[in-house]
Design a protein that fits this description.
Layout lengths: L1 H22 L4 H12 L12 H19 L2 H6 L1 H26 L5 H10 L5 H8 L5 H31 L4 H35 L5 H21 L4 H15 L6 H38 L5 H40 L11 H9 L5 H8 L14 H26 L9 H23 L10 H20 L8 H4 L3 H27 L5 H18 L4
Helix pairs in contact: 1-2, 1-12, 2-12, 3-10, 3-11, 3-12, 3-15, 5-6, 5-8, 5-13, 6-8, 7-16, 9-10, 9-11, 10-11, 10-12, 12-16, 12-21, 13-14, 13-16, 14-16, 15-16, 17-18, 17-20, 17-21, 18-20, 20-21
Length: about 550
């Protein structure tokens, strides 16, 4: 029962922290960390013991799956060059540069362990950046940070696992590690895509047989990231990349027919899950802070001087991470511009000004994935010895997360000062054009519909034709006009069913046209999601159509 009480208390705190975040001018992660630290204060004394493997398995797969699901695919492909350089090149650059610095600064941390710490400090958190920036970041920069956060979660944690293996076994070969990395990464991606595709086929088979209960399909979606992770890990591939690939694949398969209720329920469930899991991770960080501090200084003769020196170490590591990121962003961005001009492709979408480089640098906030990764460090080595400096590693990671959040809170508003982000005209035009095209598709579908269904008298046929014309007029003018006269109330049940059937046919024609536009890359995922949500709500309002 104590575990159940603890979980309920934490979930309640997640909700309360969201309300406090509206009153306190601080990012939600900082509020949640502070709430966890207050709850762990000796007078309250809430203590949560974490199993590293359980922590990694419980939190990472659904969060990475959701990131992969929500990432705009078209923007990801357009910015694939900058995203991959940040997500792969910068991770390796950080692992090497920061790893050697950490080993030099703290010689008690072996070099493989220092590389592991640098790797787990590489993943960024675009959700925290978005909360701090309050949607004022330019769209290309925000898409870069989203794509980087998606991919460097995978690359950073895969590199982290390799470094951990080297630290535990004491054996490392660069050639073997590189080959294994490629095999593990490709295997994880293939397993995630294949499993997600199989689940999509299973759902299609169930729908074709009338088994379209929304709750059942949503449960499949909830289990998919865990299944992808476990299957890949059992086969020796990357479970992290498998979860990411499953999420990206599922965003394509989510456009199944006759799944309106499922999509509506799925969006609500996953929004709740993301909110709860992200909040729980930062609350757990706050809860662990007193124990982390005690574990770091328990062997020191004096508390405050030792704690101060450890905090200075954290500051030094954070500044090095910041400098490495700025150097990489500045160098690669300018090199990309030179290569584009040399190949005759013109300038980049955004000119690499000093402000944009600093926005990308400070926007590399560490968050939930870093904490989940560092908490997964094993307690013991293979020989039964304690893992070297595990408490110090967790302290450094927690300190870097806090510093990156505080730095972003201070620097991002200053860097964004004077930037007036107007509406996204390109997306607005896409939405307007998609509504026009889908309305035309609905009108064409209604024009081809034979409203005579079974024996009807002249009055019924006239009413049916009038009803059809009224629906078509609504689509032509995009107006919600409903004739709620006494005559309309007196229409037979057959006419009501006919209206619902015609509207349903029109909505499904709109949705098919929308899918066609997406398949031909004429609209992006953001416009698709906005319009699909409205169409699903409109269909849901019709209720059961016979």
């Amino acid at each position: 029962m104590q575990t159940a009480y603890t979980v309920l208390i934490l979930l309640m705190l997640v909700s309360v922290s969201r309300l406090l975040g509206r009153l306190i001018p601080l990012p939600l992660p900082l509020v949640q960390i502070a709430a966890g630290a207050v709850l762990a204060w000796p007078t309250l004394g809430l203590h949560v013991a974490l199993d590293p493997e359980l922590f990694l398995f419980l939190f990472l797969p659904p969060l990475l799956f959701s990131d992969g699901w929500r990432m705009p695919k078209r923007e990801f492909w357009r910015l694939r060059g900058p995203i991959l350089t940040l997500a792969v090149g910068l991770v390796l650059f950080t692992v090497v540069g920061a790893g050697y610095f950490i080993h030099w600064l703290l010689p008690t941390i072996p070099l493989p362990v220092a590389f592991a710490l640098a790797a787990v400090l590489s993943p960024t958190d675009a959700v925290a950046v978005s909360a701090i920036a309050q949607n004022r970041l330019p769209a290309p920069l925000m898409h870069m940070l989203q794509g980087e956060a998606l991919m460097n979660d995978a690359t950073g944690l895969v590199t982290f696992k390799f470094a951990l293996v080297a630290a535990i076994t004491g054996v490392f070969s660069l050639a073997n590690a590189s080959l294994t990395f490629v095999l593990v990464a490709c295997g994880g991606l293939a397993i995630g895509v294949a499993l997600s595709w199989l689940v999509g086929r299973l759902r299609s088979w169930m729908i074709a047989r009338g088994w379209d209960d929304p709750a059942t399909h949503v449960v499949f979606m909830l289990l998919l990231p865990f299944a992808a992770y476990v299957l890949a890990e059992r086969l020796g591939a990357s479970g992290i990349l498998s979860a990411v690939a499953a999420g990206m694949m599922q965003s394509w398969l989510d456009l199944l027919p006759r799944q309106t209720s499922t999509r509506l329920l799925n969006r609500s469930v996953w929004s709740l899950l993301e909110f709860a899991f992200n909040g729980l991770i930062f609350l757990l960080l706050g809860l662990q802070l007193p124990d982390i501090i005690k574990a770091v200084v328990h062997l020191e003769p004096t508390l405050w001087p030792a704690l101060m020196y450890r905090c200075l170490d954290v500051v030094a590591i954070f500044l090095v991470l910041l400098a490495l990121r700025f150097i990489w962003v500045q160098s690669i961005w300018r090199l990309s511009g030179l290569l584009r001009r040399w190949r005759g492709k013109g300038e980049l979408t955004m000119v690499p000004t000093a402000r944009s480089c600093w926005l990308l640098t400070v926007g590399g906030v560490r968050g939930a994935v870093t904490l989940a990764g560092v908490m997964s460090i094993p307690l013991l080595l293979n020989e039964g010895l304690d893992f070297p400096e595990r408490d110090l590693l967790i302290f450094i990671a927690a300190g870097v997360i806090l510093l990156s959040l505080v730095a972003a809170c201070i620097a991002l508003p200053l860097l964004l000062r004077g930037i007036q982000k107007g509406p996204d005209d390109a997306m607005r035009n896409e939405v307007r054009e998609a509504w026009r095209r889908t309305a035309e598709a609905a009108i064409h579908a209604l024009e081809a519909e034979d409203v005579v269904d079974g024996p009807q008298d002249a009055a019924q046929a006239a009413l049916a034709a009038e009803l059809k014309a009224r629906i078509m007029s609504e689509y032509r003018h995009q107006l919600a006009v409903y004739n709620d006269s006494a005559e309309a109330q007196a229409l037979a049940t057959q006419m009501d069913q006919l209206e619902s059937r015609l509207r349903l046919k029109a909505l499904r024609a709109q949705r098919l046209e929308l899918y066609s536009l997406r398949r031909h890359h004429e609209i992006g995922d953001d416009a698709l999601g906005e319009i699909l949500k409205d169409l699903d709500l409109s269909e849901a309002n019709l209720g059961a159509v016979k």
